Amino acid sequence: MKVLRWQIVIALLVTFPMAATAxxxxxxxxxxxxxxxxxxxxxxxxxxxxxRKGKITAIGKNLTAPExxxxxxxxxxxxxxxxxxxxxxxxxxxxxxMSSPLTPEVRMCxxxxxxxxxxxxxxxxxxxxxQTLHGSANAIGGQSVVMKLRxxxxxxxxxxxxxxxxxxxxxxxxxxxxxHGAGHNMVPRTRMGVEFVIRSALTEAREYQxxxxxxxxxxMKRGFRGAPPEYDDRLETLAEILRGNxxxxxxxxxxxxxxxxMKVCRDFGIKKLVLQHAxxxxxxxxxxxxxxxxxxxxxxxxxxxxEVYYSTAxxxxxxxxxxxxxxxxxxxxxxxxHLYHEASKTxxxxxLSRDEALALITINxxxxxxxxxxxxxxxxxxxxxxxxxxxxPLSIYTVPVMTIxxxxxxxxxxxxxxxxxxxxxxxxxxxxxxxxxxxxxxDCLGTATETFHQLFESH
Amino acid sequence: MxxxxxxxxxxxxxxxxxxxxxxxxxxxxxxxxxxxxxxxxTIFPSPGRRIEKGTIIIRNGLIDGVGENVPIPPTAIIIEGxxxxxxxxxxxxxxxxxxxxxxxxxxxxxxxxxxxxxHRAGINPQRDVRDYLDPNxxxxxxxxxxxxxxxxxxxxxxxxxxxxxxxxxxxxxxxEMVLKxxxxxxxxxxxxxxxxxxxxxxVLAKWxxxxxxxxxxxxxAAIYATNATGLxxxxxxxxxxxxxxxxxxxxxxxxxxxxxxxxxxxxxLQKELGFVLILGDVSEGWDIxxxxxxxxxxxxxxxxxxxDPEEKKKSKKDSLENAELKALxxxxxxxxxxxxxxxxxxxxxxxxxxxxxxxxxxxxxxxNLRSMVEAGLNPDAALAAxxxxxxxxLGIDDRLGTIEKGKIANVALFSKPIFDKDAKVMTVFVxxxxxxxxxxxxxxKTASTVEGTWRMTAQTPKEEIELKVVLRKSVGKHYSGTxxxxxxxxxxxxxxxxxxxxxxxxxxxxxxxGKPQEVVVEGDVEGKTFKGKITVGEYGNYPIEGTKDPER
Amino acid sequence: MNRFVLxxxxxxxxxxxxxxxxxxxxxxxxxxxxxxxxxTITDGxxxxxxxxxxxxxxxxxxxxxxxxxxxRVIDCKxxxxxxxxxxxxxxxxxxxxxxxxxxxDYNEVGNVVPQMRALTAVxxxxxxxxxxxxxxVTTVLAAPSGGMLSGTAALINLHGYTPDQxxxxxxxxxxxxxxxxxEGPNDKRKPEEISKAAAKAMKKxxxxxxxxxxxxxxxxxxxxxKPDYYPELIALQPVIQGTMPLIIEVNGAGDxxxxxxxxxxxxxxxxxxxxxxxxxxxxxxxxxxGIPVITGKVLTLPDRAYDRYDRAYANPGLMRKAGVTxxxxxxxxxxxxxxxxxxxxxxxxxxxxxxxxxxxxxVPAQIFGVADRLGSLETGKDATLFVCDGDPLEPATNIKxxxxxxxxxxxxxxxxxxxxxxxxxxxxxxxxx
Lengths: 459, 552, 433
Description:
The structure holds 3 protein chains of 3 kinds. By secondary structure, chain A is α/β, with parallel strands linked by helices. Chain A has helices spanning 2-13, 117-123, 174-184, 191-220, 233-242, 255-268, 285-291, 315-321, 339-348, 354-359, 363-368, 448-456; strands at residues 29-37, 43-52, 55-60, 70-73, 78-81, 83-88, 127-132, 140-143, 145-148, 166-171, 246-252, 273-277, 294-297, 326-328, 386-390, 399-405, 408-412. In chain A, strands 1, 2, 3, 4, 5, 15, 16 and 17 form an 8-stranded mixed sheet that branches. A 6-stranded mixed sheet of chain A has the order 8-10-11-12-13-14. In chain A, strands 6-7-9 form a 3-stranded mixed sheet. Chain A starts with a helix and ends with a helix. In chain B, strands 1, 2, 3, 4, 5, 14, 15 and 16 form an 8-stranded mixed sheet that branches. The longest helix of chain B has 27 residues, at 200-226. Chain B is globular, with a radius of gyration of 25 Å.
């Protein structure tokens, strides 16, 4: 019996993702005489920033560089916190476990690919931290990974942002209904089905939780002999959501489904909700603000599906003005490289201020991911994650020149060679070029639908 | 999906009677005596030791004596070894040679891809490779004639296809071959792309769940076994039962993981769950030797090394600047060099390892081993990996791995020391039985002619399909030909037949479901045998083998 | 409810138009833009400039031009005037919602269908059009794609109620050159298979071209007696005769070289290369051939994993430096409005601000043979221009006025209307229960 109890404990413990025991490499850098865009504390001209052992230890004028510290002359350059993309799918070998509409038990950390060249290319766009997610094929998808772009390592665990709160992907609307309903005649085929699938999953999880709590209590009693309930990793993970240990990142577009998911969360006591994309979030901004959900949106993507046909590029501004904490994300390996440009569009679409625009890609996504104590602004004590630009990042003419993660320069426009692959393909040919990622591919599903249909046509 | 594919292959490729005896071993007369004496032979009983002009006595399937002056029993058949070099026959750590594809009887439509029947999802740890052994697999002979005497074989299939067994590469029945049953629980990170789990993260999630469920079931079964009164009856679940010895660490998991990320995924899984791990077919391990060493996992390295194509000619359509092309080619060569030097890196790191030839063409094995030695692998370390280290990892070192009195008589006789360029395997003893590989005077290079009638068999997941291919000589390197099968009795003209060295390739077009598909058959010709792959459009590729009818 | 409230509501309704309604219509009449900084493109920058728009044309432009009495005056002090931006390749008007096939009109069945005219299929009332023009893009090439000879593209202005009203004076046949590159992320074919398919397509192309040449000979020989109806070849005649350009969509470096060779071999008089993502690899050869290039979008990924990360941004600049004539395109439908930002990024990565501006104004106008009416602020050209409060390549800049052929287009789109309605939604948060 004692043995059994340990099994349960272990079973419960291992639903947590692999703790990154690998200590990340950290470095020392003194950035001298730049214009610091701190985000939380205004703009500081001709100011130095010192990073030691990967942490910002000083911000001020005329700082001295400790022995052996690398010095970067940022005269005439702009220094901002490393950009954070709260919605990406890079660095993953697979994105969608499409066989079932409910797959919360899968963990994206198992599919991490530190060799993905997209990581380097994102660094070249000033990005230092991302959340890489399961795709949007499923009503409840897998658990995401918050990671830093420590490009150069072969070890996936070294990418993981130590101590970041857990996250999981939900998806509403056209994607899950197309993949499961239309694709294989499985619930959900309509938005009615999407709500049902989520509610019933959470209800089952509640009952599963109750059964195990009962069993664990009974086990303590003298003379207890009984069979344990079935162990189900899927329900285990859902129970963790109910316990408040996992942030729900819900891919959603239409106003009605946004309201629906907030109702569901309220009914099940789930408080940590970030609406992803939320193209029609602006239509229910008061409701979102009242619930306390946050939103991570596109700058101006629309019309590639019906549920985004009635969108507006003013979305981020409207949400912000109505009290919803908003970030701008990429959901695309190309767009991630110019998030600073995407954020600048809010200067036009809604007239956000420069600091508000910068917050959309720094401190706001940091808060949404629960890591704002570590990143998202230039403050003493935070991580040494910095992006240096020639030209203000919100100007179209800006060029990122250097990106620093944990005090280590991981992108250097002057010095980096063209070919930045870590491993190469031994059977590669060099006379063949690639392809352009088609429009709409950034939608977490992209061409996955075609592949799925090919596979299932024969059934 | 698989049923659909298999059916269409059937239609496309057709069937015809094949001379199965052509594929099986030649009928041999039983040997006169079971005692052999190999004399005046240079013996390498174990890595680092060498006996000049020694004698090996084999009797009753065992080594009865080995040394410089060993008395030869009168009943012994003498084998003159004065130009030969004797090694303990090699041991392969992860192989599918000698294993038939399990025939899938169930092709019914899967209603709910999220909850498929376990066997369709590849969850079959309860299967036993012994049920699929095929002593007549011609690859056994080929492997033997590369110097191997034993291997750990695993069932074919995805994810968890069943338990492995160590077999000797000789014997007329499956049971005769088996040396150690249930040597490991075999697993791969492959999946059925149409049902759960289909992606790598789902595969690992499923693995974890099965493991935990097995632990719980095992514990409850133990409680129930001591006193069942008043307790609900546990369900029998053979899948989970197959996992019990893994959870108690009595049976290791042999996990195939080739690339650097997959190896790390498997190591992370092992760290989390605690099972005993043997990594198989590792090809990108040189940068993570520390991690592997710390885990205590045992390793079988891949014997496969990719070709390094020298881009001598720049085609006029090639738009890469010379400097860029040079840099890219250099990086690729350096990477291939790292792959070649992998074994040396493991040796330097002090990790004991064996080898697996799972994906390697057997005709490349010796070339690859030589390359590894040239890249820095100590020859003795190479020999140890092929013999005693592999035996130790498999737990059979009391019986195999060296040429020692009392051990099983698995001996390979080479024409030259093994890492010599011209070394050939002349004769192999497996379990004390003699197998000839190379005729003494078969040094002339006869140009292999491919004209004639070939009887071929393609192995699809469902069944074997038989074909007849008639090839005629055409112009230069080109041939022409027709292919027939029961579903295409009129014969289809081959569109493109080429013979490049010993590589034969031909193609033809078929209509599948109204869409034209190209079928490509490519493989190696060795005298009258053919072995290669048949690729049907976008449906994938399958092994195909054949033999040529004797000329009239 | 009292009458006053009713009146107020009615009044408000005039302004708060539901998102589905059409945007307000443009107004026509002579206009004087006074005191602006005019970026003429072809004749430098004119400070304190006055521009007179009349009868759909620029009647006068200069710092000493005065506004006539009968003309509506717009005070442009502190503002800037630019010619309307031209996007050299889009699916605008031919696409409404990407996932709904019935709204996609750019890819017709068939591999050789040059007779499919994009102009016929343009939807003048697409919701995407107002969204595009409010950012200063006034003119786009609506191009078919798919197959080999995809159809005939047309240049359209983004104003008009019928396609003919929108037509801006240029059509060109689109050829997607046989490609030896992978088509997309799910293209798992081996390089040999891809080469084979390209060779097959090349063979087909040459067959078609040969037939087109023969048909043209036949047609001229028969004079008034027309040969049999052969629509594909009829559509190619203007290209063979040299009166209509062939727009060749080609991207891989090796493929670009093949295309240049093919064009030379077939002696095609007027050619435009489109796409040209790896143009930077063979820029010298393109410049030698003297063929203009429309490339984009700029904000995209490089083709090969070992390419320098910013190749796509630097592509236009690298080609320009080698002497290639470069125009830009977005190759989009939904966000053609981002054309100026593509130009800005290209400017920052080697093209330079001036050339970048030219690449979306006078250069495409010249390439499409409509430089007599579009692409710069010159007397006699169309009054197709906009007024803004800064550098239009900068996202922070706002467009204040937009004119297409003299029509003053309200800067209203579905997206601005949604902003108006929802910035402060009425009713706001209402809790029932």
